[in-house]
Amino acid sequence: MPVYKAPVRDHQFVRSEVFDFSTHYQSLPGFEEVTPDLTDAIIEELANFNEGMIAPLFQTSDKGCHFNNGEVTTPTGYKEAYQAFIDAGWPSIDGPAEYGGQGLPGSLNLLSNEFMASANMAFSMYPILSHGAVKTIFKHGNDDQKNRFLKKMISGEWTGTMCLTEPQCGTDLGLLKTKAIHQPDGTYKVTGTKIFISGGEQDLTENIVHIVLARLPDAPQGSKGISLFVVPKRLVNEDGVAGEPNAVSCGSIEHKMGINGCATCVLNFDGAVAYLVGEPNRGLNYMFTFMNEARLNTAMQGVCHAELSYQNSLAYAQDRLQMRSLSGAKSPDKPADPIIVHPDVRRMLLTQKAVAEGGRILGAYASLQLDISAYSEDELARKAANDALALLTPMAKAFLTELGLVSASLGIQCLGGHGFIKEWGLEQNYRDARISTLYEGTTGIQSLDFLGRKIMGSGGKLLKPFTKEIHKFCEEHIDVQDLNKYAATLNDYNVRWSEITAHVGSLAVQNPDEIGAAGYDYTMFSGYVSLAYMWALAAKAAQKAQSQDNEDKEFYETKLRTAKFYYERMLPQADTHAKLAMSGLDNLLQPDCSPFEL
Amino acid sequence: MPVYKAPVRDHQFVRSEVFDFSTHYQSLPGFEEVTPDLTDAIIEELANFNEGMIAPLFQTSDKGCHFNNGEVTTPTGYKEAYQAFIDAGWPSIDGPAEYGGQGLPGSLNLLSNEFMASANMAFSMYPILSHGAVKTIFKHGNDDQKNRFLKKMISGEWTGTMCLTEPQCGTDLGLLKTKAIHQPDGTYKVTGTKIFISGGEQDLTENIVHIVLARLPDAPQGSKGISLFVVPKRLVNEDGVAGEPNAVSCGSIEHKMGINGCATCVLNFDGAVAYLVGEPNRGLNYMFTFMNEARLNTAMQGVCHAELSYQNSLAYAQDRLQMRSLSGAKSPDKPADPIIVHPDVRRMLLTQKAVAEGGRILGAYASLQLDISAYSEDELARKAANDALALLTPMAKAFLTELGLVSASLGIQCLGGHGFIKEWGLEQNYRDARISTLYEGTTGIQSLDFLGRKIMGSGGKLLKPFTKEIHKFCEEHIDVQDLNKYAATLNDYNVRWSEITAHVGSLAVQNPDEIGAAGYDYTMFSGYVSLAYMWALAAKAAQKAQSQDNEDKEFYETKLRTAKFYYERMLPQADTHAKLAMSGLDNLLQPDCSPFEL
After folding, report:
1. Domain-embedded: residue B475
2. pTM score, two decimals?
3. Is residue B386 exposed (0-12), middle (13-18) or buried (19+ Cβ within 10 Å)?
């Protein structure tokens, strides 16, 4: 059974030492009282809750949900844990006060999700998706819809889902077939089949609020003819009380590689009562509120998988005695040395650590933008934050989930044959992690969004503020002792980032397929450079603390060693990605080759 | 349900066009009648058998074995399939004729294992491990042992196992505790617990012959005090008839991530009757016969995982309609283009193809050495072949299984969310594949063996013949049209191989831990260069066939496109591995850091 200890100290380091969340909150209207004491207390409580209530259900989760005659039974213990989650008020942290939420900043919610998704990813999906449904209704719904649904969703009494995929359409929502017909009373009736609906049916709450994409009869073809609807499992009156069942039913659940505690449902809508959100045919735009939140949360899952993997493989490596160090016995009193003394085991542990801790900083960086975008009174600042999120979201989603997978696999590898055995839990962590590069848009799709829509689509304008910020950091630290080496290396990669962008841009003018040919490697290159920036920030903060003769010496020294490891052992991966990103379409699709063959 | 079609045409290409197996067989005593017609017929029959009998059990395999009161029940259909396997005579292909084998060359067996391990890896483990047990007894056992055990093992009526691991020792066999006590009748009694014994108990055969490592009472400590024993599940009289049960029992089976059709057993030996193989205390040396065979077979499993993954993700990519090509609709008559038109999907497909087909050539290359080492009458040739195998085995095991895993993961990725769903079978392929970098020595252990024992241990002498051979190829083809580009690139990497070796060697003189720090990346670098050599050989063969106006034009064109892909999109990975291999110990274990911490 794997252990999970929420990394409270590291969260504090990120919020108070790498960044200054306290000043950040002070600068946003309504958050003047969000002091470090308050946030520390919340994080501490969240740690206790997830370690005590959610992590123990990790292996039970894997036994999966059961489906019988339209009903889903979640794993043993889920109901009680979910009730405790509601009772403690966790679903409502950043919910708007007018609908019963606690009105705290969204950044706190994003960061705190990490604990639950590390403790038990399958369980965490119910509340995390629900949160996205809340935000979508809050942002795009009308007052009637907000009054009907939000209060019980924010309290956690009801959950929400995201219904996009159909058998014939996943990535390509333009192929969507689900129909919505207008009714005389102003509602709609939705008919169609949705698949892969996480939490589409469950036994945790009395109602489920589905956010559904469907087509009106007169809608334009393709993705410009999609509208967004709210479709509750049970009909809800204006005061938010659930009544009769709606015409939506769960047809089956999928048998999956992992996240088995989260029911992945086929949902059949058969003339279900639905409420149109916003304007007709603008559904995909509205859905991006949900999708962007889901993508950022998925990016953070990469951090979770690396963290859980790291904690457990580290413990194993310090405990398991096998072979002597090549440079002589390190534990001569024992029959062999603990395997952590072997350099290759250290390489695997440090990789996981660098992904978990560096990714956490990247998540925190994004969460600052999230707050500014949502709450700032400065329109220019809001726009800049929105732009930064538009850029970072697909990159972080692609890069952190890919490295989360690598980390989860290295965690298994540290355990040798034992890593393959279920009871250690690391193979489950990998299986749970495997979905993260697939759902909410595959890595390939994130790469097309990042390179094609965001970077090429803006003529490079979305990228510039970020590379400029990195450039500024490098300039300011190029002569600072012990930071200069990071600044110099980071600066080199940052310059190359622009060069590669220009190179791929010139290719893409000739053939747009060049974007697809470069996308994956370009995005991974960008991810490595961005994480190098995060590790430079961490090194700076750790050095500052050390120079102040801090008590927590070992914490900072390990941080500096991990920064060095990242720069010398992980960042060089970016070199190959750069080379491949510029290698062109020709080696993937040669002129003499049919695009339907290889 | 995944499909599997044995790559008969590609096998023929490798045996007859890349290499000249026919001449090779002619040169070995006793194999004059092994003509291309004969080998083609065998390969064809093997394909039919594995496609028809073994592949259909792929998903049933995943339901796993059942354990009850010491007895193991294999998945439904295994018994019948195993009986058909015996009836067809497949276990005995390369078994010595004096014990009822067909006396065909070992290379045929190694290559043909690929079909079964691709069709159903879990099933294939019973016969593949049994084959290693046969070879061990044949090579190191006395006449009595051969007469008692070999005939029924070669016929497949009995299987064999490899019992090394104990709870406290996996990699580090010096920690082994199982005891063997000499008996007045010349036999021994073995007592101890072995874990992770694949096929340690099953319901396929009336007897199981365990090859067991144990210690004699007066044995030296560590790995120099280990002896090898044959311990049958049921006692066997001198004529090879099985009788009473021996004192060995299965205590439980493991619950694993994959290969669930193969029972992984805890075996309790409780004074079991045992026969000493060879001299006392030389057991580890003898066991290397078994281990090297197992490692080479495991290397080939990397090919299998890539092949199965490739076939199924290719079929999906040609069928699944989603999005339009960025360069304009390729299937305008359909609602969307098949996803194979997207460059990033092609990248993922071509990677799998390059690993499967390139790895197959590397496997064939090794199998030639295997034959020479086993059958040649020329002592120098035997020694050279032995040396080549000593070098290639750990490298191929590490590199091909790591790339097999990458391929299996990319196969999932091509299917998007469907890749995560069990019914498609690709997640099972990944789960089955995950063991391959762990068992028979982890990637880290192979790397230490490769760089530490084989390369540094021989002062570079084992490496030289192989790099020389590559150098010769490059020299001979540097001016050959369309091959010159491969020759030039390959030559560069080959030169760097020697440089990196010298660099790491100089570091290792100062601190042996540098070998551990460099091992993984050095081995991966070596693997990429070796596979580049194989792809150059393939390109040469394909070009030759094309210039002869061959009918099979499309086959050769695809081969050449894949070679180009390998050189431009995969081989550059070697650059980063080179850099990391030379980056030193310091970023993994800094002087100020305790080796027990990070």
Report:
1. yes
2. 0.98
3. middle
Spatial distance between the Cα atoms of B517 and B304, rounded to a whole number of angstroms? 30
Helices and strands in chain A: count of H runs, count of E runs: 19, 11
Told to judge if B554 belongs to the known catalytic residues of this protein, a careful annotator would answer no
B511 and chain A in contact, CB less than 8 A: yes
Tokens 């409580």, located at residue: A45
What CA–CA distance (Å, rounded) separates A56 from A69? 29
Residue A266 lies in a domain: no
Q: CA torsion A45→A47→A53→A54, rounded to 10°?
A: 140
If residue A163 lies in a helix (H) or strand (E), which one and from where to where? strand A158-163
Close Cβ partners of B93 (under 8 Å, ≥ 6 residues apart): B42, B101, B102, B104, B108, B109, B112
Tally the domains of chain A: 1
How many CB atoms are closer than 10 A to CB B91?
A: 26
Q: What are the chain B neighbours of A343 within 8 Å (beta carbons)?
A: 513, 516-517, 519, 585, 588-589
CA–CA distance, B267 with B197 (Å, rounded to integer)? 7
Task: Work out whether strand B234-236 and strand B188-198 pair parallel, antiparallel, or are unpaired.
Answer: unpaired
d(CA A157, CA A151): 9
Judged by a CB distance cut-off of 8 A, whether residue A29 touches chain B is: no
pLDDT by 10s per residue, chain A, length 598: 899 999 999 999 999 999 999 999 999 999 989 999 999 999 999 999 999 999 999 999 999 999 999 999 999 999 999 999 999 999 999 999 999 999 999 999 988 899 999 999 999 999 999 999 999 999 999 999 999 999 999 999 999 999 999 999 999 999 999 999 999 999 999 999 999 999 999 999 999 999 999 999 999 999 999 999 999 999 999 889 999 999 999 999 999 999 999 999 999 999 999 999 999 999 999 999 889 989 999 999 999 999 999 999 999 999 999 999 999 999 999 999 999 999 999 999 999 999 999 999 999 999 999 999 999 999 999 999 999 999 999 999 999 999 999 999 999 999 999 999 999 999 999 999 999 999 999 999 999 999 999 999 999 999 999 999 999 999 999 999 999 999 999 999 999 999 999 999 999 999 999 999 999 999 999 999 999 999 999 999 999 999 887 789 999 999 999 999 999 999 999 999 999 999 999 999 999 899 999 9
Separation of alpha carbons A301 and A59, rounded Å? 18
Three-class SS state of B133: helix
CA distance A107 to B132: 58
Cβ–Cβ of B343/A517 closer than 8 Å?
yes
Integer Cα distance of A277 and A292 in angstroms: 18
Q: What are the two backbone dihedrals, phi and then psi, of residue B3, each rounded to the nearest 5 degrees?
A: -100, 155
Chain A CB contacts of B321 under 8 Å are 168, 172, 175
d(CA B60, CA B262): 12
Separation between Cα atoms, residue B129 and residue A362, nearest integer Å: 47
Question: What is the length of chain B?
Answer: 598
Residue B303, in any domain of the structure: no
Please spell the DSSP secondary structure of B535-576, one letter per residue. Answer: HHHHHHHHHHHHHTT-S-HHHHHHHHHHHHHIIIIITTHHHH
Which position has the token pair 């295994």? B78
Would A225 be classed as within a structural domain?
Answer: no
Q: Which of A440, A469, A551, A557 is catalytic?
A: A440
Position B408, amino acid: A
Eight-state DSSP code of residue A184: T
- Residue A110 has a CB neighbour count (10 Å cut-off) of 23
Helical residues (DSSP H) of A242-342, grouped into ranges: 283-319
B405 contacts on A by Cβ (under 8 Å): 409
Say whether residue B592 is in contact with chain A using an 8 A CB cutoff.
yes
Cβ of B452 and A326 within 8 Å?
A: yes
Range of the domain at A515: 444-590
CB-CB neighbors (< 8 A) of A520 in chain B: 344, 347
Indicate the length of chain A as a whole number. Answer: 598
